[in-house]
Specification:
164 residues; 6 helices; mainly alpha
Length: 164
């Protein structure tokens, strides 16, 4: 019996593959029929301030995977000169996700990669983002993760902005 490639896969109205499986707070797929957490809508255009506020809320709730999706929207819809900034922040969120899932090697690597990109970003950060504090946070967490420390993403979430 032969089936066409991709038969039975979840697709959106344009035919693009979409995984409709429910996911947990760290973005891990759950069995169909399980109750997962609400997914972040894709392709939302936000101001930098809205992006930072939404991502911070998700990070504080222990949902770094979902925060990464907010940053991904910003890098895809924002001005080209900010693309590397938002991508670096997404890498930090994914690094925290992997660390919280127990993937120390991948988590530390992504935290350091995001920190390096953030440190070398030449612009003035929007929305009171605090790159130096985020770079320091990422390096400290990467070292702890590599040393075998467990990570609770809600307790380990960074402060994205400078104190007001």
């Amino acid at each position: 019996m032969s089936t066409s490639r991709g038969a039975g896969r979840d697709r959106d109205e344009t035919g693009r593959a979409r995984n409709a499986r429910p996911r947990d707070g760290l973005g891990r797929p759950l069995p169909y029929g399980s109750t997962g957490v609400a997914r972040q809508p894709e392709g939302v255009v936000r101001t930098p301030e809205e992006t930072v506020a939404e991502a911070q809320s998700l990070l504080d709730a222990g949902r770094p995977f979902h925060a990464h999706e907010v940053f991904e929207d910003a890098w895809k819809s924002g001005p080209p000169e900010q693309e590397a900034l938002w991508r670096a922040l997404a890498q930090l969120a994914v690094g925290l996700t992997h660390a919280a899932r127990g993937n120390a090697k991948g988590g530390a690597r992504l935290l350091r990669r995001g920190a390096a990109s953030l440190k070398s970003w030449p612009g003035t950060p929007p929305a009171r983002l605090n790159p130096p504090a985020l770079v320091e946070w990422a390096h400290a967490l990467a070292a702890r993760v590599e040393a075998g420390a467990p990570v609770n993403p809600a307790e380990e979430s960074p402060r994205l902005t400078s104190a007001s």
